[in-house]
Amino acid sequence: MDESTKQLLQRLVRRIPAQMLRATLDKWGRLTAEQRTCMDFTQPKWTLTEKLLDIFEENGWTMKHLTELEMTYIIDNPNQGMWYALQLMDPEDDAHTVELTQLKEQFKSHLSELVRPVSVKIKKHTDEAIWIRIAWGDNFSRPNHLKPTYVVHHLQTPYVFVMSLTSKQKPLLYQALVLSTRYQAIKDANLSGRKLTAIRDVLMRQYQQVFATRYSSPLAEINLPDSNPNIEREEAEIAANRLQMACEAFGDGTLPQLQTAVYKLETKFRDNTNKTMTEHEAPFRCLVKFASTNLLESFRHCACSGIASTPVTPLLSSILLKGRNHFVITDNGPGLASQTQQSQN
């Protein structure tokens, strides 16, 4: 076993929680029954690491086998970093016919032509998602398996999700994706989050849809005793109206767990008493970022409880309607972020 393989194995074992290590190794499926019996998972991780190193040496396993183990863990536990959504554009006539075998061959071939050396491993998950692990190299070094890029793509859809991609690697990956999926272009979808399933559900509309007419008559369902004072009835009506408008904006089901929403303001300075600033050509810019463990649920709760005013502003409800959480607000109105900063290093 070379030093890079040993280093990656040590890092991977440290990364996997102790209570998940046994299940991950079992799902990997490389250990024999005897080798699994020899693994005492009550021991410290450094002891388990040494045991795995010995097993790797005995079996002559290489980096290929280790990357299989890493992919097994990452696929089952995808929330290990920040995911960014991309959208393929302008499909060619045969885009809908691309299959897994064809995608594998084409992607590896195109990426290898663009950068050498590069290590690519592709695996199909049970939910039909295609997982791609890329270890990048350059003319002077071997592929760096300690900093791989992960790509997830569902065949027959225009959506791609990427984790850990540098600005230098971005055009290489984009070109390989476009060519292998039979599309003509790819763009930033202006949607990101730490939960892969959440941003996937937003883009693919895999959540309870928002229908404003669903709560068209909320007060009819409220049965208030005739003896209630008028003030209680008025408060109940206000609360029901807030609930109605919150559900019109976000729906009443389980919401995708997005963590952030970013709004960039670009506006001209307007003050007749300050001509110097008013005539300044460059716009003023500021950035507003909302953050929460479940941002959409927080917005809905704020609207229902009266913390946020209703009806809900389109700037918030557009997160679901447009499937984005990065926006630019200009003097002409809210628009999409043209170039979202993706600090994926």
UniProtKB/TrEMBL annotation:
Keywords: Centromere, Chromosome, Nucleus. Its main location: nucleus. It is found in: Chromosome, Centromere; Nucleus. One of its GO terms (biological process) is CENP-A containing chromatin assembly. It comes from the Eukaryota. GO terms for cellular component: chromosome, centromeric region; nucleoplasm. It holds the Pfam family CENP-N. Belongs to the CENP-N/CHL4 family. This is Uncharacterized protein. It comes from Mola mola. The lineage of its organism: Eukaryota, Metazoa, Chordata, Craniata, Vertebrata.
